[in-house]
Amino acid sequence: xxxxxxxxxxxxxxxxxxxxxxxxxxxxxxxxxxxxxxxxxxxxxxxxxxxxxxxxxxxxxxxxxxxxxxxxxxxxxxxxxxxxxxxxxxxxxxxxxxxxxxxxxxxxxxxxxxxxxxxxxxxxxxxxxxxxxxxxxxxxxxxxxxxxxxxxxxxxxxxxxxxxxxxxxxxxxxxxxxxxxxxxxxxxxxxxxxxxxxxxxxxxxxxxxxxxxxxxxxxxxxxxxxxxxxxxxxxxxxxxxxxxxxxxxxxxxxxxxx
Length: 258
Known about the structure:
10 strands; 2-enoyl-CoA Hydratase, Chain A, domain 1; 11 helices; alpha/beta; 16% strand; 2 domains; six-stranded mixed beta sheet; four-stranded mixed beta sheet
């Protein structure tokens, strides 16, 4: 049984957790807390093997409202920044693939959430923006270092310093977005990708995420060592034996995450 959420809509289908933002125009402290709670639940949910984040209408998700930020003193700001980074880090380190299916505008925290996801799909109408410098502060969740790692400093700084929306096509050409789809195809394409991910052995998926995300900022020799350890763990699992046996018998494998 999952917690009842006010800002999020959760639907489970074919071992996929579909998470929709009910009011995506602005991120709120309640939304942050519910994302935190939800991903703690999803991490422990054996019936969930992948996650899709989405919304309907002209927004994927907006940023924190300036009015709510204006009320914060320096101690409150520090606490908020740390909490936002904690929530995004939890999503980024999720042991199950997280797919962001972005329609409309992903602005501020919404763009940072998309960046923290493992795979980023976009509708042709999608736009990405970080308008925070125009308000006198930096993106709240660590978007600058994430963008620099993803795109290099020059393109990252153009997005951050200009603040104008980056189109879905530009984001794709720059390597920020995996695929761009027509508006009416996005939801099904995200579901298809999640189903494809779910055909793999869940423990191997977990180790692949650990190798990719844990090794991305390490020197190559250390990243290779991390990958070796992750792969070695796979060879201790019953799922590996099942996968090999199923291949020999030319049948679909039945993975049990053990």
